[in-house]
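Deliverable D2.4 — example input (structure tokens):
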């Protein structure tokens, strides 16, 4: 009998281990910024951090939401009366409640905000939270109707541990928000070379400040909205920052899967569904994020990360004569291969500078394959000689 009890206990333990092995932990990164007001002057550096991080880490490992606060009524800022066009009041108040009271700021899994996200603590904190064991996996299903612009999101939550008082929330984001004619979407910039002497807050780092296609160290103190693409912007949080207490049973059982359908959301006509992501948050009784997962609203674009990187990857001049330059504001290209239009390799090498000598190539159209140093991701561009 004793052996039978031990065997049952061992079997249950093995089943629990099997469940646990199937659950992937993803980290929720919530940034807190503001853009057109002067208190958003350090936001470009936060954008650079987010961009570099995103180019090195897949969305298989994390979800990122950047919440915009508003500095219309910031203390001492009565001279700066421009609203942030991406301001989300409820989400901003939620960020304030976990200690994000200045710009820029960041929180991992709703633990207390750690301050400006460009410190060394950013990667260190991320690494810590990837090691936490979640209680459940999340599968997110999106259904978007382009005719009605109605979005329906549901989630299957499979628990590996029995829990109490968990809840769900749905965040909707839009990546690279671009409103070229609206001042509310401009970006204040402390890294501009055009500040009067003694005012420039960029210091010694200003000559490397670039993100999402904008070289802030070359731009004016207020970067016009025509140049700026704001990343991972929080567009909605449903039903609230704290989540819906009725979205899951009060007591959830290990091995059980629970489905929840969120309220239908009508995507505003000035939002781009192809750049939107639905992010489901599993929130513990204490308000922390136990796990998170997301899905693209309008299907899942192939190689989304590659598309985002390639949009900012420049190969110029094009057409070229003797050389081409390769440039990306956030990633480092380590090596390249150049192919002709029948797929033959005609030139290759390591990229030690941004310039590649192409004098040996005949006139024609070529494809350059570029490998990123940190991820070994390959990107492609065409050019003409």
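Example output (designed residues):
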């Amino acid at each position: 009998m004793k052996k039978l009890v031990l065997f049952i206990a061992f079997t249950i333990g093995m089943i629990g281990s099997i469940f646990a092995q199937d659950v992937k932990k993803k980290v929720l990164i919530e940034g807190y910024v503001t853009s057109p007001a002067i208190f958003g002057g350090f936001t470009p550096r936060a954008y650079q951090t987010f961009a570099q991080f995103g180019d090195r880490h897949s969305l298989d490992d994390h979800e990122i939401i950047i919440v915009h606060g508003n500095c219309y009524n910031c203390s001492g800022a009565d001279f700066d009366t421009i609203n942030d066009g991406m301001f989300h009041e409820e989400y901003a108040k939620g960020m304030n409640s976990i200690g994000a009271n200045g710009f820029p700021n960041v929180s991992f899994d709703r633990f207390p905000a750690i301050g400006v996200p460009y410190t060394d603590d950013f990667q260190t904190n991320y690494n810590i939270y990837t090691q936490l064991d979640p209680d459940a996996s999340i599968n997110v299903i999106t259904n978007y109707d382009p005719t009605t612009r109605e979005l329906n999101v549901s989630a299957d939550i499979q628990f590996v541990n029995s829990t109490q008082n968990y809840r769900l929330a749905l965040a909707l984001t839009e990546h690279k928000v671009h409103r070229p004619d609206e001042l509310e979407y401009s970006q204040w910039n402390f890294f501009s070379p055009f500040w009067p002497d003694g005012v420039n807050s960029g210091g010694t780092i200003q000559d490397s400040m670039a993100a999402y296609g904008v070289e802030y160290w070359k731009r004016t103190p207020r970067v016009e909205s025509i140049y700026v693409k704001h990343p991972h912007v929080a567009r909605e949080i449903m039903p609230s920052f704290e989540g819906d207490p009725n979205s899951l049973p009060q007591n959830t059982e290990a091995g059980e899967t629970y489905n929840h359908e969120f309220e239908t959301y009508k995507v505003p006509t000035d939002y781009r569904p192809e750049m939107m992501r639905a992010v489901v948050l599993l929130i513990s009784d204490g308000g922390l994020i136990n796990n998170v997962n997301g899905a693209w609203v309008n299907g899942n674009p192939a190689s989304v990360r590659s598309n985002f990187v390639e949009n900012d990857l420049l190969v110029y001049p094009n057409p070229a004569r003797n050389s081409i330059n390769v440039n990306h504001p956030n990633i480092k290209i380590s090596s390249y291969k150049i192919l002709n239009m029948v797929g033959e390799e005609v030139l290759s090498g390591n990229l030690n500078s941004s310039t590649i000598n192409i004098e040996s190539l005949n006139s024609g159209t070529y494809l350059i394959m570029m490998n990123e140093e940190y991820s070994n991701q390959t990107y492609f561009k065409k050019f003409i000689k």
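The radius of gyration is 24 Å.
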